[in-house]
Design goal:
The protein is an all-alpha fold and about 180 residues long. It has 2 domains: about 70 residues, Rna Polymerase Sigma Factor, Chain: A, CATH 1.10.1740; about 70 residues, Winged helix-like DNA-binding domain superfamily/Winged helix DNA-binding domain (Arc Repressor Mutant, subunit A). The chain contains 7 helices and no strands. It is elongated. About 10% of the residues are buried.
Length: about 180
């Protein structure tokens, strides 16, 4: 590996940090993320955050610190990925539900849809299903649901997201392949 000719902003950077970035850290991230591009991006971000430390020389074990940064980045990455998938799909569902307001399914379609909905709901764990039904059927806000169930509003949001994820998986598994 060639040495960089420009300053990194940290004169106390250990000589082995670059080799660690290129080898062990990247392999670790590949195992965790199973995607070369994401692993490279997170490795680069971890290394950048390490280099931005005001006094990297005060870090007793640079490799451990770098890996801790990477673990935190993985958590942040997964949260963003999971949150963005739910947000995108929810918006798309809202758009599609209002696209054809005059379209009325016939009775057979209504019965089929109701049966399918019941099958999907049965596959959602009870706590998640309860929160989902309170939100969608009873029209309760997250704060109202939290008060009724004696949980935090953040827990309600998490349960709703998980219920939607279970519903999507159940719907996907139930669709006929053709």
């Amino acid at each position: 590996m060639q040495k960089s000719t420009h300053s990194t902003g940290s004169a106390s950077q250990p000589a082995g940090a670059e080799a660690l970035y290129n080898n062990q850290l990247h392999r670790y991230l590949m195992r965790q993320l199973r995607n070369r591009e994401d692993a490279s991006d997170l490795a680069q971000e971890a290394y950048l955050r390490y280099l931005q430390l005001p006094d990297a020389g005060a870090v007793r074990k640079p490799s451990g610190y770098l890996f801790r940064i990477a673990v935190n980045l993985i958590s942040e990455w997964r949260l963003r990925r999971d949150r963005s998938a739910v947000t995108f799909d929810s918006e798309l569902a809202d758009q599609r539900s209002t696209a054809w307001p005059d379209a009325r399914p016939d009775m057979v379609e209504q019965l089929t849809s109701r049966e399918r909905l019941e099958q999907v709901l049965e596959q959602i764990p009870q706590n998640y299903r309860r929160v989902l039904l309170m939100n969608k059927c009873e029209g309760l806000s997250n704060a109202q649901i939290a008060a009724k169930l004696n949980v935090t509003p953040e827990t309600v949001v998490r349960y709703l997201a998980r219920a939607v994820a279970f519903a999507r998986k159940a719907r996907w598994d139930a669709e006929p392949q053709g």
